[in-house]
Amino acid sequence: MNKSNDHVNGVVFDYDSGIIPPPYSNVYRLSLDWSNSDLIAGLELHYTDREDLSEDEILDEGFTTNDDFSFTGKLDPVWKKVVSIAFEKVKWSGKQLDEGGLTLSAIEGGKIGNAKVPAEQEMWQLLAQDIIQAIYETSKKEAPLTVNYRQVTNEESVDCSITMNFSNREAVFTSRNLSRTINWEYAVQLLKLVFSPDYNYEIAKETPGTKRGAYIECGDGYWHELGKGVINIDTSFDAVGKIKDGFENLIEE
């Protein structure tokens, strides 16, 4: 273990979205403190520079007029393990942030240390987003995401689903009325594929198809047929095929 991190008993993430325009622009402070037996999380999220936008302009982008959020409470201890392991391996850029980004501060002996810039910005920002999602689920602000899938062959029709529980970092696969926990990273990568193609909502249906094929519903109630209503954006990358493979592998296990 890195000796300099032996006494770290928490991490504070400070983020500024920088030059991103409103209503998307935001700042947040996310703290994880495991100095006592529980993992205590704190989040202060504030959306910035919305004064010059009309209510309609904010709503049209899928936001509300009050998206700021604050939370203090217990989080599942699995996140202590994830963050502490990542923090042990952190590489520092040695630079200051110019146009927004994320800094990290260690909590040692109840005190927050100096903010430093991690070199792997994207990785740390994605990790922070995962933890924020865990907070949203823990506080009941949002429900876990469930993606439903139907595979119809000549022999049978199989319905299955993946539910992503960020609150305790568990991915649950359900098929034929049986549920099992599956590898978290596998589920994350599969869902990245799920959200990468283009979905044609004009031909989406409210019920899954019954003819031979594969159908998917991404948590919003609309079913799409892979290959017809779900189309690869990049011709050199077959996301649709990989989605089918990913679910087939789970069904066959």
Write the layout of secondary structure elements.
Blueprint: E1 8-16, E2 26-33, E3 39-47, H1 55-60, E4 69-75, H2 78-88, E5 101-108, E6 111-112, H3 121-138, E7 145-152, E8 157-165, E9 170-175, E10 178-182, H4 184-194, E11 198-199, E12 213-217, E13 223-225, E14 230-231, H5 239-252
Antiparallel strand pairs: 1-2, 1-5, 2-3, 3-4, 5-6, 7-8, 7-12, 8-9, 9-10, 11-14, 12-13
**How many DSSP E strands?**
14
Largest sheet: 6 strands, antiparallel
Domain count: 2
Helix content: 10-25%
Secondary-structure element series: EEEHEHEEHEEEEHEEEEH
Strand content: 25-35%
What is the tally of helical segments?
Answer: 5
**For the terminal residues, how far apart are their CA atoms?**
37 Å
Key attributes of the depicted protein:
six-stranded antiparallel β-sheet; 5 helices; 33% strand; alpha+beta
